[in-house]
Amino acid sequence: MRIDIVTIFPNFFDVLDLSLLGKAKDAGKITVNIHDLRDYATDSHKTVDDTPYGGGPGMVMKPDVWGLALDAIFAEVDLSKTVLVIPSPAGEVFKQSIAAELAEVENIIFACGRYEGIDQRVFDWAATKATTRALSLGDYVLNGGEVAVVAMVEAIARLRPGFMGNSESVAQDSHQDALLDYPAYTKPASWRGFDVPEVLLSGNHAAIDKWRREQQIELTQKIRPDLLADS
Ligand code: 6GU
Judging by DSSP bridges, how do beta strands 49-50 and 60-61 pair with one another? Predict the structure, then answer.
């Protein structure tokens, strides 16, 4: 899988070199290319934004600069196997099922814009070249798409075969089956007056499975009833 990220904050993505994702990159399972949008600016000030037509607050990112950045990446990939993701609070909410879909894609390009946005024509033009998806992390506003893209890349990358040490733990994750995870415990069996639930010490695997399932349903009903309504 090849991932390209276009941003005005390339250093933001240093975090992707850490932990599990760093391992997948090192093993060649995932190639991540970070592109500095300013490299595609054409004036000496490296301008990437301008005032909005029609007035209003904030600045809008220039279509000409974005066009050159995307031209360069588009030239290197098979566009029939490419999805362009536009992180935006106005997008479809990113969830596990979308992560699973994107984990099957050969090339993903993330176009990180500032909150006020990228000139709309960039998306309209890009949509004639590749599949495009506007995706939001959730119902709150961030300053730009970078934080959202780190989250999305991690959620997608860990679904790639061989990425996690234990592929069973992916299958058992919260949200994989639209239920929250059951609570986990390890030794000691008693800690600061709090005891591990008796059933987990019983060695009765059928009883343990049943208890865990009940916990999942109870927790989901209490904290995320919307997930039960969805399924
Ligand atoms: Cl993807 N971008 C911004 N700017 N804000 C967000 C978001 C994305 N997702 C939730 N809030």
Answer: antiparallel
Closest residue (by CA) to atom 3 of ligand 1?
Answer: 142
Tens-digit pLDDT profile for residues 22-70: 777 777 689 999 999 999 999 999 999 999 999 999 999 999 999 999 9
pLDDT at 196: 98
Average pLDDT, integer, range 105-114 = 96
Q: What angle do CA 56, 60, 66 make, to 5 degrees?
A: 165
Euclidean distance between CA atoms 36 and 31, whole angstroms: 17
Is 198 tagged catalytic? no
CA of 139 to the centre of ligand 1 (A): 8
The residue with greater pLDDT, 161 or 222, is: 222
Ligand 1 centroid to Cα of residue 144, in Å, is: 6
Instruction: Please give the Cα distance from 222 to 172 (Å, whole number).
Output: 20
Cβ(132)–Cβ(125) below 8 Å? no
Is 39 one of the catalytic residues?
A: no
Our answer to whether residue 76 is catalytic in this structure is no
What six digits make up the tokens of 140? 């709150």
